[in-house]
Amino acid sequence: MHVSHKVSPKTVPVTSSIETSLMRMTKKELVDLIMQLKQEKLSLEEELSMYNPKVTVVKEQDTPARFRDDEDMGDGMSGISHSNNTMLDFDSKESLLAALRDGIVWPESGLEFWKQDARKNGPIALSDSLQDIYQSSVDNAQVEKGLHIVHVTAEMAPLAKVGGLGDVVTGLGLASLRRGHTVDAILPFYECIDTSQIEDLQMERTFESPTGHDDNDGSGHVHVTSIRFEAWRGKIEKCPVILLKPLDVPFFKGGAIYGGSYNEAQAYLIFCRAALEYLAQSGMQPNIIHTHEWQGSAVSMLFWELYSSRMPSTRPILTIHNMDNNGECRQDEFAATGVSGSLFASVDKALDERTIGHNPERLCLLKGGVIYSSAVTTVSPTYAMETLTGGSAGFLQSTLAKPEVAAKYMGILNGIDTDVWNPATDPYLPACFSSHIPEGKAMCKAYLQRGLGLEEAPDKPLVAVISRLVPQKGIHLIEHAAVKTVEIGGQFVLLGTGHASGGLQSLAHDRFKDNKNISMMFMYSEPLSHLIYAAADIFLVPSMFEPCGLTQMIALRYGAVPLVRRTGGLADTVHDIDETRQDDDNAIGVPSKGNGFVFDGVDAHSIEHTLSRAFDTYQNSPDQWKELSTRNMRDSVMFSWDNSLSSYEQLYLGVL
Known about the structure:
This protein has about 650 residues and is α/β, with parallel strands linked by helices. The protein contains 21 helices and 21 strands.
């Protein structure tokens, strides 16, 4: 039987008193009333859609709309998307869920199941009306007059990605494009990149960029020559990119982005000079040159000394993603730019104070970038405070605390790509889900358990870690959490690589060998990471420090409950369900309620106690847990890059 629900709207006569009331309202009051009525309409339509869902199948490469429009809601019916353009109608939500379940290709344990299709007929995705989609409280229309923003970066996902830097450049670039800005990203043409990931790649021009070497006679004189470069243009994830390839020197060679058999400081100094030279020779006049990390810091230094007159309306800004790497170099190495390092060898410029009195004294490129940039950001508000007051910036704290620097320094929370990380459309998942249709998450959990050879136990909380295995990530706390999870009746899954994995590998190969409640994979796989996010009940991020962190935001998007140590961006994005919030619930990036579990210590007791609290809620308050999980799916859309972009736009406009 086909289920149909009809609702007859009440007809309200417009009386003269109502007309009079409307006429007396201010424009703002009328706008507020309209917005309120629209929101009530959306809520009613979402309620109605649950009674008669549809599944629509769309082209695999189609991207769901980011913003939900009233017109897209239609008559309140809902759909799903997939690869063959057929429309499937279901009598009820139950039949929809049955179709999801029946379409799963269940994996065999012991195989690399994440490399295989998870569904019989290809991936399936919920339609817009059943998705959790970001809706801004501000106007999302394109700006009337966009800015030209050029990123100068060592990484850009997915082409050249080592850490979060690559994700940030791509995410911020795409969000800027959607708003109507012009965006270019300049990065080195690494030998190791997969050029098949670049759309419309073609060589645009050859040009020469100054370089030099110090005569090393104490005079600071630099013998200037030039290096030939090729500039290649293309698009990465639809974002325009310019790849600079040096022809006369063996830089950016080898099988990895970093760690080649060449002097990295010199390589990136030459790259920075070439980026500016390319802009100048091509006649570009960008509004903003947005540099990243120490690798791009020399751009700001060289811009004001050599290029500001050629690009008078341009302003450089710097984003620091991690203070651990600050780009130390000798003054003679700086001569690779064609400029003497002695020009910047003073405490008020780029001299590394730690080397005063040494022979030779050295420069700190990140410090130079901070001093010479028109604005400086880091990747979360709390990390910015920690760098000013908590010692996270090391010796650079004194530079950041200078009044003239502190006035231009701020933390802007990173975002995530909520199209790529969307459980309602994720092509890697065996079943799609959202806060409206959360049942697919349990199917994903069962799928992962079977694929990894774990006990297929739906009631056991599954704790997940996806991380680089380095000391910063709290490796000793992860080890304690693994042991505690199994002891108190849960399951533990880890995915990651790093030089500090020895203790975890010992646990995996000795104590927990053949244990059906733990699986540790010392590797990285993008498809497998999606499956783990979708399956996880609890997502663990016990970092010693974390400038921002993206994994906890992705976990929230997939309905997992994060368990984190209170530091940096983790403190800005995860709030304990048992703590009373004191700050403004309506602030950008701040959830209205607690969304996870948080601890402060660095000892075993701190994480084990917090893990026990999470297990207690999961096992003894299932309704509360279900509400928490679905609320996390819904509220996490605020971590979209479209949200973070508004802060960057204010910053860009403020320096022009």
